[in-house]
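To fix ideas, we quote verbatim a fold written out as tokens:
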Amino acid sequence: MPGERPHHHRSDGALFAAAAAAVARSDDLDDALAELLGLAGEHLGASAGAVYILDGDHDELELAITFGIAAEVAADAGSVASVAESHDPLANVTRSRHPLEIDDAGHVPVLRGTTTAYLLPLIVRRDGIEIALGTMALGFAGPLPRRETLLGAEPLADLAAVAVERALAVAMGSERAEWFDRLAHTDPLTGLANRRAVDRLLELEVARAGRQGVALSVALFEIDHFEEIQRTGGNAAGDEALRRVAQILAESVRLVDTVARYAGDQFLLLAPGPDGLIVTERLVRGISALAPVDGKSITVSAGIAGFPLDGRTTEELIEVAERAMQSAHEAGGARVVGRTPPAN
């Protein structure tokens, strides 16, 4: 009989126990939402359903999960833009945070082909404030179920909101952890890798070169007359010189190379293969072409060491590169001292 509570294959207690388990035990948002949407459809006797999640950064509702909806319909109704201003019923429910009964489901594109629709906001409460995270939409082949039956689906929408909020919190935590990890391995002034990051990579590359019998170059760069630049222009001039050198290093190396700020006004290049000297000479020329900072030209002295000719450990390679860099300084700077590693 139209409007009667639909018959279920399980009791309400079993249905809501399954809903709680979907949230508590699933570590995948799509799986949890699919289970909750299916249970809501079962509870109300819906023939189709969808869950949209609000992308607050872009003010859009994005389709996450469906059942009983053709793929082409889902593709056409995949998002609702400008939620703050849209007249789409899904947007209205998200903004108002109130359920909506719709006698003509044609007004809800994703439920095209159904007769009536019931839309439920996904709401959580933070610091006493209700926040909408999306909308659950359910379509029916005939008239809407009775109001008391519809109200029984609200806890399922609430559980869907909890699942979405938990997934957002996990994602935010992962992004934060990734940011801290990146911060721990990045020099804040230049944006290059820092000493900690490149030391670890250097060990790995030296070990790899030893296993595979391939060449590897390590070059150290130090800004000529850096103390004079700082003395005449202050710390701001010194920082500007460091940033400009770092930019040339980052823009001029190959994809296989790594550059890092190694210490103070020193930088390191890690160059796999036999072409490290060529790369180093190109970098020194590029830095020499930089515009002056506070009237002081910017040049670097570079020393290069090659595996295995100049050393077979990271310590040996760094020691050779440092001595060569000092020789470049003593020769007047703006040059490279060293030799190319042997070709394979």
The chain has a mean pLDDT of 87. DSSP finds ten helices and eleven strands in the chain.
